[in-house]
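#structure-requests
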Amino acid sequence: MAHHNIITDMFKRVLFCSQAFEGSTHDFTMFKSIFSGLDFSRLTVWVDLGFLGIDKQVRAGTLFIAFKASKHQPLDEITLKYNSIISSIRVKIEHAIANLKTFSILRNKNRMRNDVKLTKVFDVCVRLANFRLNSLTIN
């Protein structure tokens, strides 16, 4: 199954969708191959723990990433509260992804072997999802 990196805004709209990557490719590996060295200095970037080390790859105006606990170093109460705040905002990103998965072609296992076609299908679903969000806000 192919994977994509997506960039969303806080209104659950998808602003960018990457080409399809092999299913076993890690999200951060995809991100580095697409965005490494780009200037995000005018943006606020919210990422999950799968993107540890992103600060070494891109310049972000403001970068929010949760803290990771280890077996021998549990997080203190303040850090847990910080992580909770980050998660409560990042949930909008997860909602944007869930909005895309309302299309069964993205939700179910896809046998399409051509990554170019799969990327085009994903792009159409992104446009339809954004259209649906925009039409809901207009009404």
